[in-house]
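Case study B.
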Amino acid sequence: MLTKKQRRINWILVVFLLALSIFFLFPVIWMLANSFKGDAAITADMNSIAAFIPPAPGGGFFENYVSILTNTNFVRYMANTLFYAAILIILGIVVNGLAGYALAKIAFPFRDQWLLVIMMLLIVPTETVITIHFLIIAKAGLLNTIIGYILPMIVNPFNIFLFRQVFVSLPDDVYEAAQLDFCGPVKYFFTMVLPMSKTVVATVSVFTFLNVWNDYLWPSLVFTSSDLLTAQIGLNSITSNDNTTMGQTLAVITLVTIPVIIIYALFSKQIVEGVTSTGSKEG
Amino acid sequence: MRKKNSIMGMAFFGPALVLLTLFLFLPMLLTLGFSFTDYFALNPELTHFKGLENYVNIFKDELFVRSFFNTVKFVLIIVPLQCGGALLLAMAINHAAHCKKYFKVAFFVPVVMSLAVVSTLWMQIYSPEGILNTLLGNLGISAQPFIHSASQALPSIAIMSVWQGVGYQMIIFLGGLQNISPALYEAAEMDHASSWKKFKDITLPELKPLCVFVFITVTIGAFRMLVQPMVMTGGGPDHSTYTIVYDIYETGTVNWEMGLASTMAIVFTIFVVVLTIIQNLLTKEKEGNHADKKAKAH
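Model:
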């Protein structure tokens, strides 16, 4: 199909992009390769191509990883974060889902005005209110507690709006049939509405997980006790410890990234669709 | 029926409404209220109403002015590099006939990493005896201080941020490029249009709403810069990477000067809201034109 000239241009382009991608990824390649080395080897390899090649597998290959997993609180931080994410996914789906359903299907007073308010809240950046969140949680005596961390994060105007957009197109006759069945509205929501909307439930869950996993400022404000830290804050407390070697630092940041990579691998379709649709919907 | 609807509506909307009130409406009102006072959270009894005094004073405050201009510098470096880079990458990948999938993943990898991870990694990359200085040394360039010097810290962090973020906008642009009808290009080819002409007359106009969206979201993102300097430099050296949000955070939660922090937060919010409104106006208008053109073409 392509002419000879086009084919040549294509190959130049592909080779250029390949070279660019390797150059672009050099920090990541360096991180992975050296997370398996001791600091002496990292320094010794620095000035050769060996800096980008992992050492030969053998005794002590996983030493940095083993020492992070056994000598630090890191496993605890990971477990904490997974626990917070699970709670926030469940509470977030219930609270934001119910609100989205009310805005979509129940003709309660001032519904349209509330919808407008929710849409306006989408503009407000979190930085505007985060110091006041800190003040409220501190005054309530909830600093350094799981409840204090979780409470301000449950409600999310964007997720309410997302649920509303999906629920609005659900057929009404199913609801009417459910009513004849003496199925209460709340039961109907959990047994019919949510199972019929698996895609939006998955999207909200994935984005909630990523948000909890990657969040830095709020957990760093709320938590002071080492037992409650999230992975991101814990990572900072491990790497800023003087006894942590460079190889161990690289191993920690690799470990923190692994769960996110798994999520992206499993849900890449939803995530990419989410990314491109925010562009096309708002743009 | 109406009564039943209002009870049910409140039962469903209620939990969200309580939380919205506690953690959005109330904080927004408090921020606005505090911004006119000298509220000091450790001694609230001594609060005085100051009117607009804070709003005048923060622009006389050397540190806030410094953080404001630092933030502007971040925006000025990040926005053109990230938007332009993402568009160029997307167009190149869209053109390439091979390895498309690999390219998409490769340039997206840093997006997957968190800000704290990327910052920690690049502290090693940028270290005086680090890999970047070693690579530069091989090219005959002397060692650079990067994040350890007041003049290089800000550009170093900005370039790292572009590296991390560019893949996200690249995916958005790729989505947009794939939505352009191939018929447009075929028609241009019949007219023997040059590549540049095709880019200028087809690609760019078709992508315009998306460009506005990307431009504004990247601007807002750069405006919110905080975690990278917090992890890498602590705002230094010599406050050279101190940003507006960093100042809000330290004034409010470290010094407990909620009055001043609230004033800064309000100024910051006004900037973000104005940018968002501009984006909405521009894209709405463009979409309108777009629809008109399409209607005329048919």
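Chain A is about 75% helix and 0% strand. The remaining cases will be described in the next quarterly update.
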